[in-house]
């Protein structure tokens, strides 16, 4: 029997409660599909700051790099917001992405049929369903370029550097094309090539790589137009590939359009199989500890973990099916509750999904 | 009788047709409110490239800088898209903003009641009306920072620099606060201070300037969250102030949410009264020359021109009222036409508005 090493980064706020339910579901899935999982807890974000003084202890990096996969709850909260930038929970998140070499962030934005009415878009615009995958470059660009303060014409100034090398663009472009190949075969590369030099290099490189993927239809869009098109006609998109900062903005916009933000998972991948999986929602400190958080995005992150890192596609499918079934049966945590639903809490939702595996 | 000098940059695509109608309306307004307008044509964008080889001839800069105000149609089109970056129509647009020192871009995103149904958002989300003003910094940041190609670790790379000095942030912050003071007294400053150094300086500076505006309620939001909130609950916003690139993205998203993109005007202002006024939509080369373009955004740009540069607020109000009346009466160009409306072409729409002045 295979045994997998999974590191849990429970993090802050609702992190621990939602990871608990995700583990419940993963255990049940392991039992059913006959593999073992060994869990190791490690510290990240505010929890790490409180216990060790830094948001990303060395030990966490080592444990994560030795694991088969990493499951993250959420990091951050008002408690740590006044700390200097490099000591904030976010720095831990950026640090672990970089230390694990996770250059590709996959963020599916899709509508769960029973929750269709909660999309802020008009019904005729979202139609029967919506399924966009945003592939965001995660370890380059303005997030990791040189930055600082300096004097410019005798005035205090601050700067950041957007920078991409050709190999960085090539590898994320390939993730985009490969993902599109497995889905609707349409890739939209988003940049600001009419202004930015890094975007011009991005576009040239994506076009060059496209020769390897004659079966995928490539288009290009400026980021400002993409922000509009996501609202005007999101169904035109299959896979979007873009840089770190544009991906940050556009993937959040795309998730909100789905109206299912408490339901959306994400995968951060590198060149090997190991990856980091997390819900796209935040640590929600306002409801932490009340047992009312929605664990489904974290449970669906486990499904992505099984698919991408552990390569257990049947187990991954089983989790998705279980979540769909529980939603179909009307069970809802408070964040997605509407008239006529059956209201459940965090642990009940975890139990219900586990029972459907 | 006062006489104003207005430069017309008709530009490309539908630019000349829509500027023609805007001039019609401005002439009628001048007659009614007893002032004179002298027009001078100048070249910008593709039209300038075709006639002079560059997108921004020196003469255009001189004429614009001597004017009381500048009215722009739209620039760009597929014809010039393969030219090198600095010779494209967009370079002319960035160049004239910079040459005229137009550091503040005001982009109102509002819903025109009779067009409410064309917002892509659910009716209960947009409610009775929506009126957001995005104040975008326009002559700094990554648009104008150092950029180029270089080698990084032996690999070809490209870079751009996001940079802001304190005085650049101070002056745009003041435009934001002043605008909020005249409206709903709420200013939301948007940045990515959890990652970018220029954003941290931005936030510090905005907070410092806020002491001058105790009557304006200041809040801060990360750009990714703002992209979500514009879709989830746009009514929470009054004035948004942000940097050049975030403003580019968010103002386009905000306009699309209004569903009235063919209707939205913008003003670019500097430290004096002279400004550049233009519709936010593009040059629409696909429908150019057919006489079916919607001239209302350009006509409303004339209203902003009267308000901000010529300081003729009554004339500005008269144009807004005339546009509202024509819409109320059911007249629609094809882009905003719906069942039951009265379809008119570009020139008829101009005539109708002029007749209502
Ligand atoms: C917390 C923040 C640094 C992070 C980012 O910008 O990458 C977050 O917004 C995300 O998208 O995961
Ligand atoms: C054409 C382009 C350079 C321009 C910009 O990015 O500023 C446009 O998108 C705008 O918003 O006016």
TrEMBL record, chains A, B:
All copies of domain Isopropylmalate dehydrogenase-like, residue ranges: 5-353
A Pfam family reported for this protein in Swiss-Prot or TrEMBL = Iso_dh
How, per the record, is the cofactor bound?
Binds 1 Mg(2+) or Mn(2+) ion per subunit.
Keyword Manganese: yes or no? Answer: yes
Chief localisation class: cytoplasm
Instruction: Tell me which UniProt keywords the record has, alphabetically.
Output: Amino-acid biosynthesis, Branched-chain amino acid biosynthesis, Cytoplasm, Leucine biosynthesis, Magnesium, Manganese, Metal-binding, NAD, Oxidoreductase
- Which annotated residues bind NAD(+)? 77-90, 282-294
**Which pathway or pathways does this protein act in?**
Amino-acid biosynthesis; L-leucine biosynthesis; L-leucine from 3-methyl-2-oxobutanoate: step 3/4
Give binding positions for substrate: 97, 107, 136, 224
Q: Which InterPro entries match?
A: IsoCit/isopropylmalate_DH_CS, IsoPropMal-DH-like_dom, Isopropylmalate_DH
The cellular location(s) given in this protein's UniProt record come to:
Cytoplasm
Keyword Oxidoreductase attributed? yes
Q: Which family does it belong to?
A: Belongs to the isocitrate and isopropylmalate dehydrogenases family. LeuB type 1 subfamily.
Query: What name does UniProt use for this protein?
Result: 3-isopropylmalate dehydrogenase
Q: Which gene encodes it?
A: leuB
């Amino acid at each position: 029997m295979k045994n997998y090493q999974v590191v849990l980064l429970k993090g802050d706020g609702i992190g621990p409660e939602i990871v608990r339910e995700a583990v419940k579901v993963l255990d049940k899935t392991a039992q059913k599909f006959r593999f073992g999982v060994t869990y190791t807890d490690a510290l990240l974000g505010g929890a790490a700051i409180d216990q060790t003084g830094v948001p990303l202890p060395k030990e966490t990096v080592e444990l994560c790099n030795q694991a088969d996969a990493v499951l993250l709850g959420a990091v951050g909260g008002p408690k740590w917001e006044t700390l200097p930038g490099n000591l904030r929970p976010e720095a831990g998140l950026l640090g672990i992405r970089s230390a694990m070499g996770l250059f590709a962030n996959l963020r599916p934005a899709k509508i769960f049929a029973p929750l269709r009415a909660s999309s802020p878009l008009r019904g005729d615009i979202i139609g029967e369903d919506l399924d966009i995958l945003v592939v965001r470059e995660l370890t380059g660009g303005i997030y990791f370029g040189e930055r600082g303060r300096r004097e410019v014409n005798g005035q205090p100034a601050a700067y950041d550097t957007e920078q991409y090398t050709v190999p960085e663009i090539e590898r994320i472009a390939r993730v985009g094309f490969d993902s599109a190949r497995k889905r609707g075969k349409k890739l939209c590369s988003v940049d600001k090539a009419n202004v930015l030099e890094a975007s011009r290099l991005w576009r040239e490189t994506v076009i060059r790589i496209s020769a390897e993927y004659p079966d995928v239809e490539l288009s290009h869009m400026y980021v400002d137009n993409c922000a509009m098109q996501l609202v005007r006609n999101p169904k035109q998109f299959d896979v979007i590939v873009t840089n770190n900062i544009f991906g940050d903005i556009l993937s959040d916009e795309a998730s909100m359009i789905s109206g299912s933000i408490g339901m959306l998972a994400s995968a951060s991948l590198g060149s090997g199989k190991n990856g980091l999986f997390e819900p796209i929602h935040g640590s929600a400190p306002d409801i932490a500890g009340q047992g009312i958080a929605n664990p489904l995005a974290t449970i669906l992150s486990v499904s992505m973990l099984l698919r991408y890192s552990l390569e257990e596609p049947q187990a991954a499918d089983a989790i998705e099916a279980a979540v769909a079934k529980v939603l179909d049966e009307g069970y809802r945590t408070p964040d997605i509750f509407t008239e006529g639903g059956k209201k459940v809490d965090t642990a009940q939702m975890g139990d219900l999904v586990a029972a459907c595996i």
